[in-house]
Amino acid sequence: MLRTKKLRLGILDAIVLAFAVGAVAYVAYRVDSVLVYKWDWSAIPGYLFRWDEDLGTWVPNLLIKGLVTTIRISIWALIIASIMGTILGVMRTSQRLLPRLIGWAYVEFIRNIPPVPFLFLFYFFISSQIIPLLNIGAALDNASPTVLAIVELLFGPARLVENFLSGLISLSMMSAAYIAEIVRAGILAVPRGQYEAGYSVGLSKFTIMRYIVLPQAIQRVVPPIAGQFITLIKDSSLVALISIQELSFLAMEIAISEQRFFEVWLFTGLMYFTVCYACAWSFGRLEKRMGRHLR
Amino acid sequence: MTEHGQDFPHASSPQDRAAIIRIEAVNKWYGDFHVLKGIDLTVGAGERLVICGPSGSGKSTLIRCINRLESHEEGLIEVDGIELTDDNKRIAEIRSEVGMVFQQFNLFPHLTVLENCTLGPVRARGMAKTDATALAMELLEKVRIPEQAQKYPSQLSGGQQQRVAIARSLCMRPKIMLFDEPTSALDPEMINEVLDVMTELAESGMTMLCVTHEMGFARRVADTMVFMDHGEIVEMAKPETFFSNPKSDRCKDFLQKILHH
Hints:
The complex is a heterodimer.
Chain A: H1 11-34, H2 43-48, E1 49-52, E2 57-60, H3 62-92, H4 97-111, H5 115-134, H6 136-141, H7 145-155, H8 161-188, H9 192-200, H10 205-220, H11 222-235, H12 247-258, H13 261-289
Antiparallel strand pairs in A: 1-2
Helix pairs in contact in A: 3-4, 3-8, 3-12, 4-8, 5-8, 8-10, 8-11, 9-10, 11-13, 12-13
Chain B: E1 19-30, E2 33-44, E3 48-52, H1 59-66, E4 74-79, E5 82-83, H2 88-95, E6 98-101, H3 113-125, H4 129-142, H5 158-170, E7 176-180, H6 188-203, E8 207-211, H7 215-221, E9 224-229, E10 232-237, H8 239-244, H9 249-259
Parallel strand pairs in B: 3-8, 3-9, 6-7, 7-8
Antiparallel strand pairs in B: 1-2, 1-4, 4-5, 9-10
């Protein structure tokens, strides 16, 4: 284990620090005096919470609702993309040609198309071809209040569920390709001897993958997976393009209607930062706990 | 668990010398390289075979063919009456009756010592977890490290890790044990603790095939010595004759180098 290095400031550090402070001060000065921009943050709090006259309480307003939708779609996409990515990653290391070919085709197809065209194309394909088959709208119309409440908790407002699912599937499919590659790298890093030891006690290929190889592979790739998860949370802002009413979509509407671009986007950026940094921090903790026994 | 009155249960008694491994005219190639050339070998139940020879002579490959970590191209290998073919179900059956100990231990680093031992019985044999734990603890005691059961492999010394590997194999209650240079990766002061466990195992009547250069161990334990070179079995004899009166020049040469280095 490496010991944590002591914080020691040299002359070089002082120079670098001075430059950084100078740069920030300069930008602040430019913004303040040259841009001649009148800052007005007063509109923001009203979009976080508003007073509901009918209910007589404070209720979450657009920004908080958007944040909740962003978190909701991110968590679901993380789960779906992780499962898909793991399966695809395993397929790509298979000794059989067909699974390997399918995994390869999927990964190459998705990661070589930019996210925006992919989202548009898949959104229209999924929402026009797949979602109608599921008949969700009719099902929800007939659902009991309890079921409806659970669905709303998990997937957001009932009337937007179909829309939400289309965006969710597109986002998950996109991220799965990248996770598949990370998982594949993890699997390839597990030494041959681990398989042999598994075979020599009579375990099947599936059992070896499930109990010996995958656990080690995943523990080895926690850092890149964390990066991919953070990318996914940020990429969830792309589904604003297909009218999912998440944080970026609503921020755009507020910015336009209030004519307060800097304030709204700075604040929105801060909200994303908070969520992503929380994710990064938890993964940092996880990293310390996992993989400590791997040689 | 001592119905045989022995330290390591389920091993056949030495008197019972029916052939348990039959190898006939086996050939194997790695591309153009002919690794095994017409190998014929019969091992009786309870027999202790020590295989030696210079590196690259095919000795590891030979024992790896016995549990089919490597496949042979020509000839016949029969283990406990089952012929080794591409039939995966039968191979799994054979593998759970043939234990193997590797040069690099190959313990599962993400599992505790105890979990290393119970994985096979639980996942390959369908044994209940509590039974598997009891069995594992019994065998960890046999290899003299029951107190390390909750530790991870990386927390143990090399000698301890190799003894865990032996216990892990024994948890499958194998009829045959294969050792592929089990002490070659160990620091000198740890070699004996592993050899002691192997000696006890041999005394319990286990059928053993050991690839090793530990000639002291071979003298003490082996029923039969096998010398391999260039993919062939050059010499096969009882240890007394093997060490005192080797026939071939290649074997004499090898013994000279290894005994008086």
